[in-house]
């Protein structure tokens, strides 16, 4: 025979109960079964809530109770014939009448004992089991309901009663001996003491009831039917990549569930483990899925780590003081007072110096624990030997679990480096003496990120997820998005990188989709938004708290550049196309590099100079290999090169500038190019990368435009003003031609001095034939003294700039 347990989620609606009925039908054909049920959906939570409302004199419990009644009646109406409905609906109504009287009593007496609480919440399972019995018996005649309170006998510790196994096993065996029904339906979670008063086995206890029955009946298997396809490597609601574990040992399942994998209630394991009855975890909503088998033969021996679980709502209490060193009995007094007051300790750590002990307890116990401990040590505290206990809230415990952990080195190394490189601070660490788990305490708001990065480190070692947030979706930004989307499959396949674009923003609004934007939706979603978002883009990125986050700045905006420091401090890497950060104050530039190192993030800006050309990387490689750069000669403005190459004769200078802007070869404001400011920023960045401290003002700028035109109020005004300069440029062009030269805007650096300006470049010079929007840089170094190292190629344009950004992003993904 088999015992099947269906959880609240499986009984939440008429639709899911239909699935339950089909599973029962299928199984009952093959053998006799016992079916243990939880309350429907969130009914137990709702009953707890109703009781609290009544207790604090909030009359809304009455309307809430009506909703609860209606919920159950609706299920009956949908699944039962009219004839069958009457008796169950009258059972539901009379149960709700009793509930109302109990709640009224709590309301008027302003008193709520654990005994009353148990009486009230037991109605969840009483209702669900009665309803299911009626629904199943419509199709399987040999179905009967049995009240668990007549079988499972406990002590009188209401809300978490202890089972009297001798009595219970005897009751179950006796009942089964005369039980002819093919399907027996029982409520889980509920039980009774010797006086036949209702008790409960603790929240989540239906699993336990089912295990008690399975053990007493020597069932061949205990099946736990829930809303996920087994026990997963971690909670699948928080980590999309989590996978069901096919086989797991009782011990491993126990550790995982102790630390919060709530698919199975930890005490469940004990009764079935003693009899070696396997537990199967199955999905009601996908009954063909394999699920998980929990048994003695965990097979999967090659796997060091089986799963990761977590518990939220943890408080950490730290007892510290020099007076603790070498004194016997401190821990004993500490643990005794908590045990005497039924406060469960979830985790313990003690520093080897013995002057501090840390314990983790559930948040709801922390106030009480604090007072109890301070009271126990009041003498030591008043003598300043021990400090009053320190309490930290809003924490969570994470545990990695595996039977094979003790024989493998490096588990904790992998765990802590995954957390460290994602800027997740660990408050306390403990390793179970059995070496089947390592657990650590972290802030609650880091749980999702921590689970994802630890999961990636242990289970997806081959695939690394990068979460990309783009600011600026104009020409270059748009190209970058399409390049990333187009290459997504290739990156996964060839580089084991899962690059997800999670956020996009323009100057007015942003759009974020945690699961990654797909091809078509981001533009529509971004433009749909008329209003500014309430929270800034940066705050929204930080709040998402994703592992391996990368912020890509494809704007030319100072405000965006000012955000880098804060992002880096949160271990969010920055890829900048925007040159402002690297060309502003030297100390700020250095600070960003320092922050990147400190917070294990990357700060990359290859596209600051020469768009997609590998110029900055080359300088960095020269320097790190011990070379020294002595001189740089360069044409660094694709825009100016384009303009002067187009300007041969015929069209007016001003017309060509406009054309360059329209084709996306200039900065959004072409004055930045024509003033030489853009080129000055670029040579500044190269000099800094070469290891020299230099400020923008030190770069000599030989202007080619009269000052007035650069001070125009708007880009349009500027165009009207440079029309007046057409004559001036025509003269320059004629002069260049006369000297058999071309006009090139050149940046130079030598002997600590740098300048930018328009030059006549004679025929034969390497820069003379520089075409289109190309850039060229010649580096003279200690190693390249005679013949410079030259990098040349397209230095502007949306496609090449986007591919430079792409390369930076991939570089972050490839870093370990
Ligand atoms: P039921 O209503 O069937 O009792 P529960 O809500 O108690 O179901 O337990 C199932 C839930 O446990 C899943 O929906 C999932 O969110 C959560 N869970 C937490 N950790 C894990 C894990 N490691 N594997 C599977 N589910 C998990
Ligand atoms: N209904 C109870 C609870 O929600 C028991 C269970 O579902 O396991 O805690
Ligand atoms: Mg459960």
Short description:
This protein has 816 residues and is α/β, with parallel strands linked by helices. The chain has 30 helices and 28 strands.
List the helices and strands and how they pair.
Elements: E1 2-6, H1 14-30, E2 33-37, H2 43-55, H3 61-79, H4 82-109, H5 114-137, E3 143-146, H6 165-177, E4 183-187, E5 190-192, E6 198-200, H7 206-216, E7 221-226, E8 247-249, H8 250-258, H9 269-274, E9 279-283, E10 292-295, E11 307-320, H10 330-340, E12 345-350, E13 356-362, H11 363-376, H12 378-382, E14 390-401, H13 411-420, E15 428-431, E16 437-443, H14 447-459, E17 464-471, H15 475-495, E18 497-505, E19 510-512, H16 521-528, H17 537-544, E20 549-553, H18 558-561, H19 564-569, E21 573-576, H20 580-583, H21 586-598, E22 603-604, H22 615-624, E23 629-635, H23 638-646, H24 653-662, H25 671-674, H26 677-689, E24 699-702, H27 707-710, H28 715-723, H29 726-738, E25 741-750, E26 753-762, E27 774-781, E28 789-794, H30 798-814
Parallel strand pairs: 1-2, 1-7, 2-4, 3-4, 7-9, 8-10, 17-18, 17-20, 20-21, 21-22, 24-26
Antiparallel strand pairs: 5-6, 9-10, 11-13, 11-14, 12-13, 14-16, 15-16, 18-19, 23-25, 23-27, 25-26, 27-28
The chain binds adenosine-5'-diphosphate, aspartic acid and magnesium ion.
Query: What's the shape?
Result: elongated
Ligands and ions found: adenosine-5'-diphosphate, aspartic acid, magnesium ion
Strand order of the largest sheet: 3-4-2-1-7-9-10-8
Instruction: Tell me the number of helical segments per DSSP (H or I, 4 or more residues long).
Output: 30
| Share of helix, binned | 40-55%
Report how far apart the termini are.
52 Å
| Main sheet: strands, sense, barrel | 8 strands, mixed
How many runs of DSSP E, i.e. beta strands? 28
What does the average pLDDT come to? 92
Which structural class is indicated by helix and strand composition? alpha/beta
Low-confidence stretches: none
Radius of gyration: 36 Å
- Beta-strand residue percentage: 15-25%
């Amino acid at each position: 025979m088999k015992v099947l347990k269906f959880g609240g989620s499986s009984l939440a609606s008429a639709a899911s109960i239909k699935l339950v009925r089909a599973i029962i039908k299928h199984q009952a054909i093959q053998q006799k079964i016992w079916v243990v049920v939880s309350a429907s959906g969130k009914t137990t939570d709702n009953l707890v809530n109703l009781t609290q409302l009544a207790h604090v004199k909030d009359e809304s419990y009455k309307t809430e109770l009506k909703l609860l009644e209606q919920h159950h009646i609706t299920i009956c109406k949908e699944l039962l014939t009219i004839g069958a409905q009457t008796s169950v609906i009258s059972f539901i109504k009379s149960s709700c009448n009793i509930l109302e009287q109990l709640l009224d009593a709590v309301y008027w007496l302003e008193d709520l004992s654990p005994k009353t609480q148990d009486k009230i919440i037991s109605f969840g399972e009483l209702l669900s089991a009665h309803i299911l019995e009626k629904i199943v018996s419509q199709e399987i005649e040999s179905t009967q309901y049995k009240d668990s309170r007549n079988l499972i006998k406990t002590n009188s510790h209401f809300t978490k009663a202890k089972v009297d196994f001798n009595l219970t096993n005897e009751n179950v065996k006796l009942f089964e001996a005369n039980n002819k029904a093919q399907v027996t339906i029982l409520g889980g979670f509920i039980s009774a003491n010797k006086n036949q008063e209702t008790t409960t086995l603790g929240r989540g206890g239906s699993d336990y009831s089912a295990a008690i029955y399975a053990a007493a009946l020597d069932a061949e298997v205990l099946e736990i039917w829930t809303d996920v396809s087994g026990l997963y490597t971690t909670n699948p609601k928080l980590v999309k990549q989590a996978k069901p574990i096919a086989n797991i040992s009782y011990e491993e399942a126990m550790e995982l569930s102790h630390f919060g994998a709530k698919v199975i209630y930890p005490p469940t394991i004990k009764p079935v483990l003693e009899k070696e009855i396997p537990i199967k975890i199955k999905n009601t909503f996908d009954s063909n899925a394999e699920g998980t088998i929990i048994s003695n033969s965990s097979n999967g021996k090659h796997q060091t780590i089986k799963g990761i679980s977590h518990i939220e709502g943890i408080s950490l209490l730290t007892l510290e003081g020099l007076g603790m060193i070498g004194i016997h009995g401190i821990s004993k007094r500490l643990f005794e007072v908590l045990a005497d007051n039924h406060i469960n300790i979830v985790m313990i750590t003690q520093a080897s110096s013995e002057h501090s002990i840390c314990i983790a307890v559930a948040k709801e116990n922390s106030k009480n624990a604090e007072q109890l401990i301070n009271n126990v040590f009041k003498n030591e505290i008043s003598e300043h030997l021990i400090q009053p206990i320190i309490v930290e809230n809003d924490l969570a415990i994470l545990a990695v679990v595996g039977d094979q952990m003790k024989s493998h080195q490096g588990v904790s190394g992998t765990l802590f480096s995954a957390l460290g490189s994602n800027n997740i601070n660990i408050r306390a660490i403990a390793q179970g003496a059995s070496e089947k788990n390592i657990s650590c305490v972290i802030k609650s708001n880091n749980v999702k990120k921590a689970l994802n990065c630890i999961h990636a480190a242990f289970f997806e070692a081959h695939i690394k997820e990068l979460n990309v947030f783009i600011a600026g979706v104009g020409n270059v930004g748009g190209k970058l998005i399409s390049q990333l989307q187009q290459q997504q499959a290739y990156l996964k396949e060839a580089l084991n990188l899962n690059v997800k674009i999670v956020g996009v923003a323009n100057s007015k609004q942003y759009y974020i989709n945690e699961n990654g934007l797909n091809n078509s939706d981001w533009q529509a979603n971004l433009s749909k938004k008329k209003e500014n978002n309430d929270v800034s883009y940066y705050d929204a990125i930080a709040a998402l708290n994703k592992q391996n986050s990368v912020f890509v700045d494809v704007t030319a905006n100072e405000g965006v550049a000012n955000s880098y420091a804060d992002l880096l401090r949160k271990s969010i890497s920055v890829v900048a196309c925007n040159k402002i950060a690297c060309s502003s104050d030297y100390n700020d530039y250095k600070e960003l590099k320092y922050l990147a190192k400190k917070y294990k993030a990357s700060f990359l800006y290859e596209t600051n100079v020469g768009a997609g050309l590998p110029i900055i990387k080359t300088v960095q490689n020269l320097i790190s290999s011990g070379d020294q750069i002595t001189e740089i000669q360069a044409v660094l403005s694709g825009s100016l090169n384009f303009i002067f190459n187009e300007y041969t004769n015929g069209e007016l200078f001003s017309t060509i500038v406009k054309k360059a802007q329209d084709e996306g070869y200039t900065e959004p404001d072409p004055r930045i190019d024509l003033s030489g400011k853009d080129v000055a920023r670029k040579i500044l960045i190269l000099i800094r990368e070469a290891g020299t401290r230099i400020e923008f003002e030190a770069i000599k700028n030989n202007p080619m435009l009269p000052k007035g035109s650069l001070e125009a109020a708007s880009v349009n005004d500027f165009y009207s003003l440079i029309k007046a300069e057409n004559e001036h440029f025509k003269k320059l062009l004629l002069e260049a031609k006369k000297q058999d030269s071309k006009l090139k805007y050149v940046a130079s650096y030598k002997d600590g001095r740098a300048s930018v300006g328009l030059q006549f470049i004679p025929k034969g010079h390497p820069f003379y034939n520089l075409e289109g929007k190309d850039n060229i840089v010649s580096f003279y170094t200690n190693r390249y003294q005679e013949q410079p190292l030259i990098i040349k190629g397209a230095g502007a344009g949306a496609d090449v700039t986007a591919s430079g950004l792409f390369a930076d992003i991939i570089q972050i993904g490839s870093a370990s």
